Amino acid sequence: MTTDTADDPRPTFARALDQAGRQVAAVGPDELGNRTPCADYDVRALLGHVVAVLHKLARVGVGEDARGIPDVIGGIADDGWASAFTRARSEVDRVWADDERLDRMVQLPWATLPGRTALDVYTHEFTVHSWDLAHATRRLAGLDPDLAEQALDAFSKLAPPEDRSERGPFSAVVTASDDADVYTRLAAYLGRRP
Fold first, then answer.
1. What is the pTM of this model?
2. Where would I find the Mycothiol-dependent maleylpyruvate isomerase metal-binding domain in this sequence (predicted)?
3. Whose CA is closest to 53, among 157, 131, 123?
4. Which fold has domain 7-143?
């Protein structure tokens, strides 16, 4: 079975992972303790989170339960994050190369969705976390604005302000200036304070 490229989330997902991978690779050991705009995460914890998400996506892609994988993976050497991300990403790429996985239902820790929808949602998560890392390490230049536009559009449907609570992953919308770039508007929409 061949997937219609117009309905295939993998190319955009790959762009989001490429961007995240560049941010991960740029982090130096002296930046691991920097605070990020993502609540409760310093750079080390956020790196542990993005690697954990990749492990979860690989596991659900083959029909296994991902709930046993922690939200933040630890135990990675200070200079080992880029290789940990690359290895986990290679596994995700291998698992999700199969077109049939796109239409299978996958059990995520927070929902059961078709594979293509799950990849689309995680495209936007990796886009936001790329900005989180870029903000925390002062490497904002070069982020893909098209990914942020898509994420802002998706999150306006997935996480409307009226559906948020204090215990959810997104805080109340923060006001952004009218001339703010798209990543600043995205961060503000998700409750981060850019």
1. 0.90
2. 14-134
3. 123
4. Four Helix Bundle (Hemerythrin (Met), subunit A) (1.20.120)
Tokens, residue 161: 């302000």
Q: Which two tokens stand for residue 115?
A: 């594979």
The candidate with the shortest Cα–Cα distance to 145, out of 187, 179, 182, 120, is 182
* Residue spans per domain, the chain: 7-143
Give the type of residue at 32: L
Q: 89 is written with which tokens?
A: 């990403």
Q: 3-state SS string over 54-68?
A: HHHHHHHHCCCCCCC
Element (H, E) at 128: helix 115-137
Reading the block at residue 54, the tokens are 């990749």
> Tens of pLDDT along 84-118?
999 999 999 999 999 999 999 998 877 899 999 99
